[in-house]
Every structure is written in structure tokens, then in C-alpha cells.
């Protein structure tokens, strides 16, 4: 009030205000004053009227509820005005208020009709096709029969997302554009397809709208082709565009266009898209004047961050942004539905009844699935494929998914105590006794024995039966380790007389057996013997295949237990059952009592060669006895050495280590590790699967010594190797020439290749092997290993090796007539009677030039980045100076030459790949070498190394330089 009085006073007493301004503002101020005086009264009236209006709304709603049956075709504003004696516009306002509060629903036709929500079915029936819902609230959504049942989560985690999507789809005019985001595999593409099916299923949608899908990643590497595919191509737009081509936008006109991986669109393409969204206009690629029209709903999908991958101008034009939740955020019931749905799909493909073991089902429901629904489906398909293959091979009536069919990352999700709550899920049998919670061995063998595959004349082999026995032992061992030892947990599985007898045997034999005999053994043995008794009563027990002999101490114990059970409960066990009992006793020993035996390491070149071979062997043997180490071809020997050393030091309590390797520097790694760690290590080269299986089998017996395991594996190689790998002459060993150098990869490999090329057909049985010799000790126990397998006729190389009865030929001597003739004579006198020929092609050479030529030839074969000829010319003069200083003979010169060339090649490679050039070039022996290096030594080597650095753009570190100097002084 005071403010208004002050304003009027200022206004009418503005004597200093010019007349022009006073006349100009007169009308405005009069209106403003009127507004300021009247506004409070109007607001007060509105506030006092609001409760009355709401009360009137409730009265009208009550009246509509009572009289709604009088308006069978729906209530109109005219009907309500006539019934309540209201103005039509007032009645319309009341009806709209009730619609906003969702107490009524209305149609989009003329006249507008209103119904109660309980009349929605009637409302849907009354909507004419031409009056399809144009508001954002469709009356009734009809779900297609083949979509509602297949899309999981419509009534749970996805319900709000689906409701928003449908609201956007049925928005008036043409709907709202939708952007879907979420991790890979969550079902974005399927969600878009699901929305399209919903739209097509509506009864008022008479014309089927097109649904066009495209993954932008398909043409992401060619932006022009990508945009042409989406928007179309004009003839002549580029070379090869010989005709006009309609794009996806034109195909999706009056429908839905789904663009997956939309973030792969280039910025120019994203700009074209938001122009299409804004105006409904676009041009084909190559068009400049004509403009085309399109009316469609755009649905985009991406796995990337929206703000960082899409232009803001495009992002804000998607009215609705939906995030599809990953599988880990879906409910347990939904994941169960996914599993059941995918299993039904696979069963339909196989046309065979499909079963899945309960613990396998739990594994699928619990494992971490980073690939979400897509990965779950893929893992289920892999498991079904493996189970189906077993069905084809065994000829069973049904396909059963078992533990071995599951991928490792799925099976590993089950915790150690995954059987604790198994009892409530067990199926009672007809005699009310519950089944043993694993399939017994006799049922497994019965399904395999004599059955043929429907697709091939295949019969289960003894090897497959042996695999079944191994799997059965693993299952029993796993079950015995669960916490079900209490009597209430086991009474229902094992008959009372058998259980009592086993408990008594524990008391009688606890002190007699030289190993732990307790609850774990009782569980496993009791379950097996109960299955044996049940099958014997039915007369359907299949005989066990021959089981490998267990260690004698367990066989003796199993015999004592069998005699005790026969006397106590009259249970007679055949010999193979006793053998199986012995394995059960051994397999259930605590882990800390199994580590006293021989450890077997498999080390091979390749990214997964050792892992794959170990996986097969461990599966066959039923125990992880083989420890694989993979050595990628790009990995230096020193890195592998450290890796193996660390693994060995982590394993304590072993009686020895057997290393099974393939070729190269790995052959001598065992010797270095044995000296380094002070533990017994034996090595076998040229490993194959029979050797590995035999070594693993023997290592399972704790009392077997390293020599026993070694000899058994070696015997397996000789017994099972192909004839081409064995000596060709009866009663004689295969002849062998051994090439040696400091690394086993440089000069030794060069000599190896050269000798193999020079050997004639008459000496085709001669094998050549390259090995490493320690530069300090000049010793290699690998020669002794070769001696047991071959008849060594000569050792050739750059390192003098003393070996009884085996002549040594220096590498340089082979370049002379004397050396050539000497090796020729050795081959001739060792050749079997009845053959004679020139074993080596005459190749006499002489002088320093021939030494350079030989070194260059060798480096060309073992290096990838070094130019051997340039390298040889670079170092020849400086090498002669070092040769005179250290008094090297030609053999040492050749060895150092090859070693330095290999080193420079590695350094060049490291500059290209960013790897450490020192890895693998400095061995543990080099680091601990006691030979001192002075500054004078470095000054002597510096001219040679500087020249190499200048020409080949490499850099010798202090550490690398000192290692070279020590190697040169050790000669």
C-alpha cells in the first residue's frame, strides 16, 4: 500500500520531468497503477476459488462413475454439460482435468470421448482406424504373441524402459527419436526390434511400417560409402556409381530406421542425421540441388559414452535416451528365464531332449558374464555343442550338459562348497530313498557300452571308458571335500550297514595305513560302494574297464578294506573294484601330502602350445600334474628363465623336477636352473603327448623318484614315437652330430643347418642337434642325455667340449680340407655295413675371407633386421685387433662374431618394437660372473662398438658392454 501511494505521488508531482515524457508515459502508468491496485484482489479470489473447484471436480467424477453405463459409446463434453446443466466449455474443462489426473481416458477422434480406465477394452474397440491414438498415452498396447513371450523382463527390470519406449513410439505426429546405450551384449538391437513388433501389432496400424536395421561399423572405414548407404547415392557421384541407388532412409520412410553403433558415423554424417531429424529433409550422396523428404522414427544404439562420441547437436535431438541394464543388474528370475529360453532354442535345433545337471545350471546362473546376454547365449551354445557331440558318439537317447561341457570360466564360478545345499534339490526315487548326488560309474558305462552313434558306425573305445572313470574319480573327490560329513547328511545316501562297516574300518585301520584314512575317504568310498550295491541288485552293472595300477601302498590298503567288508557285510568286490578303491584313497589325500613327489614342467615355444598339451594331459589324468609355461616366439630366453625360476621357487617340498621341452635354448635351461637353485632337475627334449602323459602318470605316485619318472617318460618317447624318429637299423642307435655354441641359437644353429644340407642320402639317418654350452664351465649334461638316446659320432662347434669317446671338431676346422675329411671319415666308419658314399659334398675353404663368408652366411639365416654383409665389413678390422689382444683362435672369433651379430639384430628389433634389448642377452651367469672389467677393457672395445652404433643406429649400454667384455675375456 505504501509503495503504491509513493508511486502515485512521484508520478503526479514530476514537475522536473519534461512535458513530452509526461504525456508519453501517461497511458502506461495508468495501466500499471490499475494492475498494482487490482492484482491482490484477483489473486485472493483465485486462491479462495481453488478448493471449490477441486470439490466440484470430485462431485463430477462421482457422478460420472454412477452414470457411466448410460454412455455406452463414451462420454462427451456435450453429454456431461446436458446432464449437469453446465456450459459445454466448462464441462470440457472438467473432463480434461480428470484426464490429467488419470481418472479418465479419452480417445483422439471427433468428438472426443471419455471412459473410465476400467473400460479400456471397450475404449480400444471403439477407436476407428483413422482415429488411431495421437496422444502420448495409448489406450491399450497389444503385445505380439512372438515378442512378449521372448522378450524377458517386460514386467520387471525393463518395465519402465519399455513403457518409455512405447510412449515415444506412439507420440503424436511421427513419434520421438530414441537413443539406446548400454554395454555390449545387453540386447540393444533386440530391444529396437521389439519396439517395432509392438508397433506392428496394434490393431489400428493397418499398414505395416518398414523396420530397417544397419550396423554403422560395417562401413566405418569408408565414410563416403557409409553415408551413401544410409542416404543413397546419385549416379556419377563417384567412380563406379553407374546408377541411382536408394538409401536406408528412403527404405525406412514412414517406418523405423535402427542404426547400431551410431557413434561410428563421421561428424559430417551426424550433421546430416540431425538435419533429417529436424526438417525431415536429406540429399543423396552427390546431389546438390534436389531435396528429398522422409518421415521416420530414428533409433540409435551405442556402447560408448554418449557425450564423448556424439556431436552435441545430434545428441540433444534424441528426445528419449534409454540405458539398457547389463545382465548383472537383471533379476535372478530373469537370468533363469534367459537360461531356459536359450536351452529351449538349442533343444529345438538338436531335435533331441536336452537335460542339464543342476550344478551346471547353477554355474550358468552365477558366473560373471562381461559379455552379458550375448556371451551367455554363446557359452550355452558351446556347452550344448560339446554335449551333443558326446550324444552322437555314445548314442544316448538324450543330450545331457555335464561339468566337462562347460567353458572353464563358467565352471570356475561354483564355490568350493557348492554342494552344501544340494539335498533340497535332489529327486526322490520310487522307494522314497534319495539318489546319490552324482551319476554312478556304472550308469555312465552302460550308456557308453556298445552304443553306436546315429550318424556314424562308432563304438565307445576303451580310452573313452577310461576317461569316464577318471571323470568319476574327480567327481567323487570333489564331493568328498564338501562339508557334508555329518551323519544326517549321509544317512540318506549310504545304507546303514555299509556306513557302520566303513566307520568301523576307520577305527581298525587308522594306525595300519601309512596315510590319512578318515572322513573324506569314507565319503567317497561309501558313495561308490553304495552305487555298486544298487547296480548289483538290479543286475545291470557294467564291468569296469582296466584301471591303471595305483601305488602299492594304496592297493594293499584297498585289499585290506575289501576283505574287511566281505567278512562284515558279505560285500564281495572284484579286483578292478579294489583297484578303483585304491585310487579313491590316493585321490582324497590332502594337498600338502601330495607335493613330496616329482614336479613336471612343460616348456615349449608358442603362445599356447604348452598350455594346450597340459590341458589335455591333466584332463586325461584327472589331476593338474603338468605345469605349463608358454614361451612366445617374441619372448627372450632370459624372460622365460625368470618365469620358470619363480614358479619353481614358489613350489616347495618336491623331490625333483622333470622339465619337458621342445627345442633350442630350452634344452639347456634345466642345467642352468639346477646350478642356480641347487635342486635336481632332469630335462627331456622333443616332447610329445605320450611322453607328457607318462611323466604325469608317474608323478602322481609320491614315492617315485626323479629318475623313475624321467626313465618312464623317455621310454614312452622311444616306444610310441613314429618310425621316422627312431633308428633305422635294428640293434643300433640313431647316429647324432651335436653342434654347440654359447647360446645354442647362433653358430650352433648355423652349423646345424649347414650340416643338414651337406649330408648325403646315405647318411639320412643322421640327426643334428644344436645345444648351448655354458661359457664358463664348458659343461652340458644334455650331451649325456643325448648319449642315452643316440650314438653321438661328433661334436662340432665354437666351444671346446670334452666328452669321453666322442671327437670334437672345431667349427673353423670344417672350413679346411682336414676338417672336412675328418668328418667324412667319421660318418663313413659309423655307417651301417653295405652303404658307401660321399657323405659330404667337398667344400674346402681357407683364410680370413672364408671366415667372414661363413659368418655372413650364418647371420643371414638367424637374423631378421641386420644386413650381414655390411656388418661383416664393418667389424672385420677391429675384430682382428681384439683377436690379437685376447689371443683368440679362429673358432672363438667365429663364435664372438656370431654372438655380436645376433646382439645387434636384437637391438635393431628393440628400436622397432620398443622391447628391452637386454632381455635374454644377459643370462644369470653373466650377471654373477666374477671376471672383472676395467676402464682399459672398455677403451679397447669402444672403437668397435662406436662404429656399430654409428652405422646401425643402436646404443650399447654400460651393462651390455661389460657383458661382452666378460664373454671375450672368458675365452
TrEMBL record:
Highest taxon, organism lineage: Bacteria
Annotated ranges, domain PTS EIIA type-4: 597-726
Cited InterPro entries: AAA+_ATPase (IPR003593), P-loop_NTPase (IPR027417), PTS_EIIA_man-typ (IPR004701), PTS_EIIA_man-typ_sf (IPR036662), Sigma_54_int (IPR002078), Sigma_54_int_dom_ATP-bd_1 (IPR025662), WH_DNA-bd_sf (IPR036390)
Coiled coil stretches, renumbered: none
Keyword DNA-binding: yes
Key words, A-Z: ATP-binding, DNA-binding, Nucleotide-binding, Transferase
GO cellular component: membrane
GO molecular function: ATP binding; DNA binding; transferase activity
Designated name of the protein: Sigma-54-dependent transcriptional regulator
Organism: Sporolactobacillus shoreae
PROSITE patterns: PTS_EIIA_TYPE_4, SIGMA54_INTERACT_1, SIGMA54_INTERACT_4
Upper lineage: Bacteria, Bacillati, Bacillota, Bacilli, Bacillales
GO terms classed as biological process: phosphoenolpyruvate-dependent sugar phosphotransferase system; regulation of DNA-templated transcription
Sigma-54 factor interaction domain location: 151-385
Amino acid at each position: 500500500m505504501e509503495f503504491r501511494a509513493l508511486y502515485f505521488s512521484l508520478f503526479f508531482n514530476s514537475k522536473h520531468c519534461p512535458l513530452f515524457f509526461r504525456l508519453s508515459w501517461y497511458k502506461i502508468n495508468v495501466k500499471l497503477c490499475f494492475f498494482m491496485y487490482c492484482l491482490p484482489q484477483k489473486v485472493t479470489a483465485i486462491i479462495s476459488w481453488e478448493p471449490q473447484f477441486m470439490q466440484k471436480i470430485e462431485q463430477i467424477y462421482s457422478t460420472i462413475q454412477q452414470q457411466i453405463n448410460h454412455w455406452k459409446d463414451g462420454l462427451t463434453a456435450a453429454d456431461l454439460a446436458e446432464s449437469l446443466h453446465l456450459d459445454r466449455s466448462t464441462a470440457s474443462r472438467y473432463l480434461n482435468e480428470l484426464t490429467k489426473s488419470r481418472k479418465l481416458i479419452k480417445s483422439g477422434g471427433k468428438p472426443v470421448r471419455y471412459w473410465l480406465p476400467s473400460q479400456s477394452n471397450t475404449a480400444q474397440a471403439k477407436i476407428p482406424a483413422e482415429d488411431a491414438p495421437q496422444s502420448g498415452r495409448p489406450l491399450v498396447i497389444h503385445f505380439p504373441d512372438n515378442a512378449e513371450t521372448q522378450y524377458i523382463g517386460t514386467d520387471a527390470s525393463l518395465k519402465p524402459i519399455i513403457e518409455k519406449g512405447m510412449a515415444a513410439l506412439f507420440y503424436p505426429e511421427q513419434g520421438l527419436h530414441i537413443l539406446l546405450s548400454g554395454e555390449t551384449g545387453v540386447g540393444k538391437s533386440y530391444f529396437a526390434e521389439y519396439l517395432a513388433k509392438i508397433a506392428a501389432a496394434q490393431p489400428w496400424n493397418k499398414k505395416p511400417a518398414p523396420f530397417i536395421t544397419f550396423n554403422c561399423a560395417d562401413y566405418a572405414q569408408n565414410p563416403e560409402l557409409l553415408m551413401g548407404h544410409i542416404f543413397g547415392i546419385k549416379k556419377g557421384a563417384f567412380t563406379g556409381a553407374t546408377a541411382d541407388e536408394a538409401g536406408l532412409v528412403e527404405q525406412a520412410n514412414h517406418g523405423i530406421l535402427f542404426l547400431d553403433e551410431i557413434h561410428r558415423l563421421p561428424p559430417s554424417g551426424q550433421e546430416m542425421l540431425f538435419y533429417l531429424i529436424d526438417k525431415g529433409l536429406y540429399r543423396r550422396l552427390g546431389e546438390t540441388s534436389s531435396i528429398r523428404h522422409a518421415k521416420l522414427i530414428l533409433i540409435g544404439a551405442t556402447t560408448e559414452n554418449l557425450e564423448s562420441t556424439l556431436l552435441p547437436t545430434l545428441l540433444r535431438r534424441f528426445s528419449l535416451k534409454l540405458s539398457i541394464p547389463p545382465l548383472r543388474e537383471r533379476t535372478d528370475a530373469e537370468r533363469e528365464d534367459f537360461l531356459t529360453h536359450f536351452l529351449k532354442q538349442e533343444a529345438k535345433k538338436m531335435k533331441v531332449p536336452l537335460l542339464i545337471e543342476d550344478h551346471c545350471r547353477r554355474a550358468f546362473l552365477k558366473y560373471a558374464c562381461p559379455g552379458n546376454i550375448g556371451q551367455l547365449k554363446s557359452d550355452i551354445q558351446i556347452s550344448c555343442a560339446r554335449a551333443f557331440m558326446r550324444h552322437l558318439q555314445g548314442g544316448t537317447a538324450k543330450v545331457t550338459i555335464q561339468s566337462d561341457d562347460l567353458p572353464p570360466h563358467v565352471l570356475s564360478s561354483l564355490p568350493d562348497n557348492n554342494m552344501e545345499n544340494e539335498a533340497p534339490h535332489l529327486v526322490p526315487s520310487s522307494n522314497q530313498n534319495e539318489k546319490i548326488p552324482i551319476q554312478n560309474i556304472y550308469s555312465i558305462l552302460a550308456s557308453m557300452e556298445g552304443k553306436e552313434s546315429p550318424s556314424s558306425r562308432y563304438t565307445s573305445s576303451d580310452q573313452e571308458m577310461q576317461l569316464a572313470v577318471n571323470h568319476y574319480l574327480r567327481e567323487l573327490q570333489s564331493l568328498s571335500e564338501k562339508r557334508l560329513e555329518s551323519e544326517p547328511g549321509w544317512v540318506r545316501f549310504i545304507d546303514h550297514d555299509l556306513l557302520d562297516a566303513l566307520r568301523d574300518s576307520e577305527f581298525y585301520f587308522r594306525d595300519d595305513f601309512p596315510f590319512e584314512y578318515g572322513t573324506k575317504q569314507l565319503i567317497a568310498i561309501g558313495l561308490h560302494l553304495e552305487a555298486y550295491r544298487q547296480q548289483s541288485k538290479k543286475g545291470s552293472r557294467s564291468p569296469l574297464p582296466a584301471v591303471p595300477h595305483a601305488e602299492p601302498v594304496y592297493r594293499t590298503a584297498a585289499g585290506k578294506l575289501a576283505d574287511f567288508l566281505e567278512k562284515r557285510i558279505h560285500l564281495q568286490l572284484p579286483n578292478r573294484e579294489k583297484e578303483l578303491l585304491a585310487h579313491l584313497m590316493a585321490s582324497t589325500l590332502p594337498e600338502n601330502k601330495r607335493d613330496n613327489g616329482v614336479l613336471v614342467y612343460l616348456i615349449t615355444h608358442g603362445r599356447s602350445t604348452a598350455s594346450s598339451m597340459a590341458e589335455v594331459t591333466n584332463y586325461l589324468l584327472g589331476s593338474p600334474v603338468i605345469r605349463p609355461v608358454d614361451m612366445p616366439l617374441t619372448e627372450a630366453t632370459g624372460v622365460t628363465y625368470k618365469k620358470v625360476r619363480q614358479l619353481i621357487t614358489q613350489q616347495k617340498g618336491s623331490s625333483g623336477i622333470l622339465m619337458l621341452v621342445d627345442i633350442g635354448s630350452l634344452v639347456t635351461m634345466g642345467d642352468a636352473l639346477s646350478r642356480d637353485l641347487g635342486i635336481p632337475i632332469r630335462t627331456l627334449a622333443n616332447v610329445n603327448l605320450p611322453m607328457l602323459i607318462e611323466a604325469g602318470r608317474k608323478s602322481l605316485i609320491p614315492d617315485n623318484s626323479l629318475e623313475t619318472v624321467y626313465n618312464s617318460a623317455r621310454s614312452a618317447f622311444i616306444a610310441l614315437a613314429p618310425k621316422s624318429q627312431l633308428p633305422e637299423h635294428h640293434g643300433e642307435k640313431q647316429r647324432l652330430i651335436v653342434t654347440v655354441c654359447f647360446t645354442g641359437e647362433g653358430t650352433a644353429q648355423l652349423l646345424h643347418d649347414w650340416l643338414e644340407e651337406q649330408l648325403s642320402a646315405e647318411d639320412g639317418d643322421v640327426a643334428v642337434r644344436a645345444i648351448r654350452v655354458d661359457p664358463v664351465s664348458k659343461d652340458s649334461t644334455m650331451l649325456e642325455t643325448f648319449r642315452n638316446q643316440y650314438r653321438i659320432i661328433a661334436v662340432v662347434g665354437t666351444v671346446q667340449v670334452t666328452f669321453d669317446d666322442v671327437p670334437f671338431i672345431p667349427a673353423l676346422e670344417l672350413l679346411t680340407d682336414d676338417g672336412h675329411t675328418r668328418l667324412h671319415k667319421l660318418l663313413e666308419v659309423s655307417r651301417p655295413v653295405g652303404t658307401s658314399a660321399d657323405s659330404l659334398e667337398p667344400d674346402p675353404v681357407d683364410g680370413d675371407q672364408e671366415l667372414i663368408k661363413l659368418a655372413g652366411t650364418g647371420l643371414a639365416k638367424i637374423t631378421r633386421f641386420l644386413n650381414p654383409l655390411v656388418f661383416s665389413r664393418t667389424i672385420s678390422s677391429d675384430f682382428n685387433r681384439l683377436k690379437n689382444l685376447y689371443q683368440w683362435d679362429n673358432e672363438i672369433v667365429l663364435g664372438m662374431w656370431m654372438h655380436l651379430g645376433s646382439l645387434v639384430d636384437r637391438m635393431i628389433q628393440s628400436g622397432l618394437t620398443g622391447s628391452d634389448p637386454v632381455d635374454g642377452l644377459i643370462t644369470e651367469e653373466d650377471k654373477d660372473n666374477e671376471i672383472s672389467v676395467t676402464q682399459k677393457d672398455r677403451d679397447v672395445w669402444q672403437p668397435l662398438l662406436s662404429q656399430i652404433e654409428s652405422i646401425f643406429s643402436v646404443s650399447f649400454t654400460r651393462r651390455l658392454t661389460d657383458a661382452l667384455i666378460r664373454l671375450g675375456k672368458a675365452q
